[in-house]
Structure formats: structure tokens, C-alpha cells
Write a structure and sequence with these properties.
The complex is a heterodimer of chains A (83) and B (365).
Chain A: E1 2-8, H1 11-23, E2 29-32, E3 44-49, H2 53-62, E4 69-74, E5 79-81
Antiparallel strand pairs in A: 1-3, 1-4, 2-3, 4-5
Chain B: E1 2-3, H1 15-27, H2 37-57, E2 64-67, H3 70-81, E3 87-91, H4 96-105, E4 108-112, H5 119-130, E5 136-140, H6 152-161, E6 166-169, H7 181-184, E7 188-192, E8 204-208, H8 244-259, H9 263-278, E9 284-287, E10 295-300, H10 305-314, E11 317-318, E12 320-322, H11 327-333, E13 340-344, H12 351-364
Helix pairs in contact in B: 1-8, 2-8, 3-4, 5-6, 9-12
Classes of the chains: A alpha+beta (83), B alpha/beta (365).
Chain lengths: 83, 365
């Protein structure tokens, strides 16, 4: 199992992303970005549980909620960046 | 009390705004900081407020910057576009919130259009001034002294034609007149939250077509490892803890405005009643015109404006006398030496208040 994290440069865009996912009935949570994913310090991200990650990705990309980066957290604690 | 100073700040505030302010004090911490429920609830509310502003003013939520007031917003906009010795075109009805920053910067100011209630003249003067390619144009949408509704769409079109960035001061227009960042193509539109948007004092908005230069540097809750401010909207202009209490009140205020589309017509009706009544006093010079919102100024011929305003205040009527922080507007209208008495309405004023005011006035003149 895994869960995906979409990072955003601004909380405002992350909030917009959350609305997009809520409208699409995709379960998601707006949270602080884990330290391991932070590039320039604090920020916010959207966490999505599998198997909703592809739908979430599509919705964010097609509804003016551009994320900065997309990561996957596996059960063993390792991260993978999804291109 | 009869409150006719709504151009300064609307009073009373809708019950929903009062409730929202109290709710925020009990339920929100700092938006954009922690990840716990109190902070996340505040962040969600802040975004809803940005969205509401974006809906009202035809832009994207990211283009909405929260400020302390319109003056703060105007300073952000002006200091982004204008540097020392730059030439700037302004209307003849600008507030000190525009003129003082320009003076402090050392800008060279051209005043375009000083005739009251003469939109064609205003347009023509702006066109002549814009042809000379100034660094920026700044125009109030509605004069805070006279209620003159300037032809902002036409001025914006001219600015686009001559490729001059435009700053609109929508302090007296927001919530009453249609205001659109998209349609005007303005670089920035500034407005307070506590006037026609019915929010609390200490709130304002800057709508941005481009990221402004920060006036303040500090924490934003984003890119915090960097020494510099983020370069993206809205974070680049929002250093420091947000006024969550005020923002929640502002959200309720904007919802109130949306729920009352009759607001402008109501103010217009009151304005016409007042103008009709004042016309009966030969002792008054009344400034009225077609292109006028719910703001009206007059000058008594035989009594000092401040003294008459004080008499009214002592009788329970709140009006504003003097220069209204807009000496340029008074110079344009020829009232700089006397000032004026200004009456300004809100949703909560009623026809009967005007009748009572006119009766009092007849006693004092």
C-alpha cells in the first residue's frame, strides 16, 4: 500500500486543490508538507490514499490547481517522486 | 443616532458580520501556520474569503491579497510600479492614500480631469495624458468627497491602448459598483474591507494582475528556509500573521453584499431624495450630478462646515466635514478653502432619516 502527496508552493493553491478534489468526491487531506519533501522550508500538501491517486492527479492538473511535485510514500517509509 | 458617514466606514455592520468576528475569535488560530484543526479551519476560511472576493471582483483567488486597509493596498501597488522621478497620471479626485505615497516617492504627477460629474472630459483629459506614456496611471473609481463615478472602464481601455499600467482605487466603489480585475485589465485594484464591503476596520484587499513588491518582509508560512520573500501571489505581499478575525468578518460582509443586489439602487434612491431636499436651501451649494453614487457634498454659504457638522453631531447626526483626506478633490471642485459637509449612505439608512436631517438643517441654517 502507499499514499500520494502533492506539494504546493502556496497554501492558497493547495486550498484550491482541496476544493477540486472534494467536488470530485476524492478523499484527500490538506496537511503540512512532511520535512522530507520540503524544498525551501514550510509548506502545505494534499495527501491522497491509494487507489485515488491517479484521479486526484488528473483533477488537479485539469482544474487550475497546479501542484509543485508529486511523491509517493510506501508502507516501508520510503519516498518516491512520481514524474 | 443617524449615521451618514458611511464613506468613512459603514456603520452599523450587519449582524452576520458581528457574529463572524466573534466566531473567529473563538474558533480560529493563525491561518497558514500549524497543521492542527484550529489553524486549518482558519486557513480554509481565509481561502473562502479569497474565493468570495474573486467571485465579486472577477479574478482568481490567488490574485487576492489581504491588507490592513485600502491605504496599505495602494501603497503596495504604487511602490511596485512607481519610482523617484517617474511620471504618473492621476485623476483630479484622488485621496491622500494615493497622493502622499506619490509625494514621498518623488514621482512627477500629472493631474488629468478635474471637472466634477463630467465623464467625457475626464476621458479626454486621461487620453491626452496617457499619450505621453507615463510610468503608471492611478484613478479613483468613485470620489470619496463628491461621489463622482469616474468612467473607469473607458480609462482602463485607454490605459490598455497606450500600454500604461493602471491602479484603481475602488475604496468607494467596492460593494456598490461593479468592479472587475479581468475587464479593466488593471495592474492593481485596491479597496478597504470596512466600507462598502461591510467588514470590520483593519481589513482591505489588493487585487493583483502581477506580484507586488513586498512592503513588509517576514513570515508567510511558505518557503520559510529562504531569506527572501516568496515571489508568488498572494504570499509575496502577506508577511506576518493574518487578521483572521477581520477576514472572517470581511467574508460575512461580502456575503451580505452578494445577498443584497438592491444595495446600489437603495443608496441611489436616498441620494436623489437628499439632493431634492437640499435643493430647497438657497443657503447651500450642493454638488450633484448624473454620475454619482450614494455620496454627496454640500457647502453652507453662511456657516463654517465644521461648525455645522458639530451642531448636527450634537443633535445626533453623524456627518463628515472638512477635506476628507482628499485635498486634490477639493482643489478640483473649488472647495479647498471651505471644505464640504459630506453625506454618505449605506444599506441601513432609511428615507425617514433624510427627512429628519433636512428638518434639522433648516433649523441650523
Amino acid at each position: 500500500m502507499y499514499e500520494d502527496y502533492f506539494t504546493f508552493r502556496s497554501l492558497t493553491t493547495a486550498e484550491r486543490g482541496m476544493q477540486v478534489l472534494q467536488r470530485s468526491r476524492i478523499p484527500a487531506q490538506l496537511t503540512r508538507t512532511p520535512s522530507a519533501l520540503q524544498e525551501q522550508g514550510c509548506g502545505f500538501c494534499i495527501r491522497v490514499q491509494a487507489p485515488s491517486e491517479n484521479a486526484a492527479n488528473w483533477q488537479l492538473q485539469h482544474n487550475h490547481a497546479p501542484y509543485s511535485r508529486h511523491f509517493r510514500l510506501y508502507d516501508n517509509g520510503s519516498w518516491e517522486e512520481i514524474s | 443616532m443617524i449615521y451618514f458617514d458611511n464613506a468613512a466606514t459603514t456603520f452599523p455592520k450587519p449582524q452576520s458580520v458581528q457574529t463572524a468576528v466573534l466566531y473567529a475569535m473563538q474558533n480560529f488560530s493563525s491561518p497558514g501556520r500549524g497543521g492542527y484543526p484550529l489553524a486549518m479551519a482558519a486557513a480554509k476560511m481565509q481561502f473562502r474569503c479569497r474565493q468570495k472576493a474573486a467571485e465579486l471582483f472577477d479574478c482568481e483567488p490567488e490574485q487576492v491579497v489581504f491588507t490592513f486597509h485600502a491605504t496599505h493596498a495602494l501603497n503596495l501597488a504604487i511602490k511596485t510600479l512607481v519610482q523617484r522621478q517617474d511620471r504618473v497620471v492621476v485623476s483630479g479626485f484622488e485621496h491622500n492614500a494615493v497622493m502622499r505615497p506619490l509625494y514621498a516617492i518623488g514621482a512627477r504627477v500629472t493631474v488629468a480631469g478635474r471637472k466634477l460629474f463630467a465623464p467625457e472630459d475626464t476621458i479626454s483629459c486621461f487620453e491626452n495624458a496617457l499619450k505621453t506614456k507615463p510610468k503608471a496611471a492611478i484613478c479613483t473609481h468613485v470620489s470619496n468627497v463628491f461621489g463622482y463615478r469616474l468612467p473607469i472602464l473607458e480609462i482602463a481601455a485607454l490605459c490598455r491602448q497606450y500600454d500604461v499600467p493602471l491602479i484603481i482605487d475602488a475604496s468607494q466603489a467596492a460593494g456598490i459598483e461593479p468592479v472587475s480585475l479581468r475587464k479593466t485589465g488593471a495592474a492593481f485594484i485596491a479597496m478597504p474591507g470596512h466600507k462598502g464591503l461591510y467588514g470590520a476596520q483593519g481589513t482591505g484587499l489588493l487585487l493583483c494582475s502581477r506580484p507586488p513588491k513586498p512592503l513588509l518582509e517576514g513570515g508567510t508560512g511558505s518557503q520559510s528556509a529562504l531569506q527572501t520573500m516568496p515571489d508568488f501571489l498572494p504570499d509575496c505581499a502577506e508577511a506576518g500573521t493574518a487578521n483572521a478575525v477581520g477576514i472572517h468578518g470581511l467574508l460575512a460582509g461580502m456575503e451580505f453584499v452578494s445577498a443584497h443586489p438592491e444595495l446600489a439602487a437603495h443608496e441611489q434612491k436616498l441620494l436623489r431624495q437628499l439632493a431634492d431636499g437640499l435643493r430647497g436651501f438657497s443657503e447651500l451649494i450642493v454638488f450633484e450630478g448624473k454620475a454619482q453614487t450614494g455620496v454627496l457634498s454640500f457647502v453652507p454659504r453662511h456657516i463654517d462646515c465644521e461648525q455645522l457638522a458639530q451642531k448636527l453631531a450634537d443633535s445626533g447626526v453623524a456627518v463628515r466635514a472638512g477635506l476628507h483626506c482628499a485635498p486634490l478633490a477639493h482643489r478640483s471642485a473649488g472647495t479647498f478653502d471651505t471644505g464640504t459637509i459630506r453625506i454618505s449612505f449605506s444599506y441601513f439608512n432609511q428615507s425617514g432619516e433624510i427627512e429628519k436631517f433636512l428638518m434639522l438643517l433648516s433649523e441650523f441654517l
